[in-house]
Design a protein that fits this description.
The complex is a heterodimer of chains A (about 300) and B (about 260). Chain A is an alpha/beta fold and about 300 residues long. In chain A, helix 2 packs across helix 3 and helix 3 crosses helix 4. In chain A, the strands form three sheets. In chain A, strands 6-7-8-3-9-10 form a six-stranded mixed sheet, sandwiched between helices. Chain A folds into two domains: about 170 residues, P-loop containing nucleotide triphosphate hydrolases (Rossmann fold, 3-Layer(aba) Sandwich); about 60 residues, 2-Layer Sandwich (Alpha-Beta Plaits). In chain A, about 30% of the residues lie in helices and about 30% in strands. By secondary structure, chain B is mainly α. Chain B has one domain. Chain B is about 80% helix and about 0% strand. In chain B, helix 2 packs antiparallel against helix 3, helix 3 runs antiparallel to helix 5 and helix 3 packs antiparallel against helix 7. Chain B starts with a helix and ends with a helix. Classes of the chains: A alpha/beta (about 300), B mainly alpha (about 260). The interface between A and B is medium-sized, with 33 and 28 residues.
Amino acid sequence: MTETALQWNRVTFAVPHGFWMRSKIIIYDMDLSVPAGTVMGLVGPNGAGKTTTIKLGAGLLRPQTGQVLIKERLSTEAGARACLGLLTETQYIYPHLRLKEWLIMLAGLSGVKGGKRTRRVNEVLELLDLTGQANQMMHTLSKGQIQRAGLAQALIHEPAILLLDEPMSGLDPYWRYRVQKILLDFKSEGGTILFSSHILVDVERLSDQVALLEEGRLLWTGRLADLQRRITGYEVICQTRQPEVLANLAYNGKMESQPKGGWLFSILATQKKELLQLASADTITLESLRPVQEEIEEVLFGFTSGSTRMTS
Amino acid sequence: MKSVLGFQMWALAINVWREAVRDRLLHILTGSGVVLMLFSLILGQMAVGGQDRVVQNMGFWILGIWGLLAVVYLGSNIIRQEIQQHTVYLVLSRPVNRPTFLLGKFIGVLLVLLSIFCLLAAAWLAIMQLKAIPLTTLHFWALAFIFGEWILLAAFSLFFASFTSPLLHNFFLVGVTFLGHWSNDLRIFAVNAQALWLKKLLNILYYILPNIEALNFREAALYNEAISSGLLMEGAVVLIGWIATALAGANLLFARRRLL
């Protein structure tokens, strides 16, 4: 049986709201489990409750009802958080500390001491290419460097579980790629990750499972691969001596000539039969027919707005 | 387990100290205290006799007030900044419990206060030496209890910072300091008050406010009056009792504080 790394058991969380401080529920009766050694992506529109879910997981917030467990211990118990690394969406720094001092302090708070602490500080600085900035005051670091420093502090104590709130935020494409690789390496070494992201390509690439939230409710959990994605059309490459016949088929009449007399164009899914007829009549020589699937955003956010409720 | 908690508190405390010693405002505060003490030499020249007393009085006064200023500045920001700038998230998402966090911050503030106090006290003692004013053990008792008052204010500051805004924190802290010094007067006013409600109010204030005047041995040092061990003991009990109460209250409130 797979061990559960993180678990939200019927968790409800409310905040005081308005002048009369009335209670406003922002997480409704959430049941969510992240098996050990897997990656779960939290997705949903702004205000869906992704950050609150992560804060509950990190023991920063105490739920009104239900429990949040880290390896079967309450997340609000300090000891339970020893195996946890947290990356917040915005990096909250002490401006008058040097990067190295900050990392040493946070490593110390996680119980990493002595020679191991020095070694780990140097390792994470090197991993995130921050060795040159180690003695810089934190307020002098760039946005991207601060984001990387945030990941460095999350990894410094070699946690078994990572909670990451928008980990790719503020990173350039090169560092997005590098961070993805770091996270995949972490997973391959048996680590568990729960992360939120607005970038569904990242979610698709990293996650084993996805949890979709909207207005504090868990709408769907499952594998992105299991989602039924409609084929909306095809991308076609073919050869022909009569390009005018393709003009009727091509979506919006747009065709691109290819080397060696080939043509590249898109067709609607409904026109596939017509295209194949042209191919069987030898009017065209079909070189490639690639299905174009519905965007993952369209499928995923089709569940939102209170329309459909699904659980896998 | 105990060593881990101690290590965590020390890591937090050192961080508070490092940040504070790089803060220009605290440099200015300490520097201005030293300059004012030097100014007491000029003021002493203008005084008709009793130049020694002016130097001593002004030194004690600066040490008292500068402690309050330092605590107001450090204390009003210490918890607020952690919560408003969300730096507390990275601390409390680790195996650090809230009392450890609070005590770590408190120890850090004490380290900063000790640094400022040592500089100011050293400047004052140097001036005393310069003016060839004889130093007695009474002066050192007075100094020790002034620093005790700083610690007490730091504990109250932590208590107020754990539930109020910086403005209210400052208001309460200054209020406690001044009313605490007038504590004995409150008792006398209560005895002399005619209206029953006023008598009750003054008595309540007398009991709920720390008697900071019990820590004041400046006059004794100034006039070279012997201090009984009983009075010193009473001062120490007041000090330890109120520090423990303020820290326990701060813990209780901070444990319930929601970190959104």
